[in-house]
Design brief:
The protein is mostly helical. It contains eight helices and no strands.
Amino acid sequence: AFLIPAVLILVLQQTLVLGICMLAGTERERRHKGDLILGESYSNPITVLGGKGLAYLLVYGFTATYVLCFVPWLFNMPQLWQLPTLVAFVLPFLVASIFFGITLSFFVKDRESCFLLFVFVSVPLIFMSGISWPTSNMPDFWRNLAMLFPSTPAVNGFARINTAGALLQNVRREMLVLIIQSGVYFMLS
């Protein structure tokens, strides 16, 4: 029960990043073949980015509800979160993960390459989050590298919200990191 909340957060991030990167790879393959015609709808990148981000957020809002609420309930796992706290915490995590995925999709040239790039980092991300290995025993390089991934603050915050019933003021630092990541990855994407 102590590791599952971390894995659920990581599953959300990794499937979101993989899905975004697969869509970007497919779009690049079609564009390379001439199937995609760029028109006026692509003239404003902020509009395109906002539309894509909102579409991913709507889909993953339902997915996050299923993964974070229904799956633990199905397996009788303890859940001490309060709904307003959970929603307010998961929203910036999803936004940060979406723009993180869009940023990483720049490096994906075809739809299969994202699996080679991102699937194998899942296990190191669990360790780097600090949930299974204390961050005080990690070198500074790995601690700083871990903070580039939205799953790191989300795992720590969600673990406290889910298992200790923490409120937003108790996970203020993690929320701030997720909001900063959202802004940085939005600007990068």
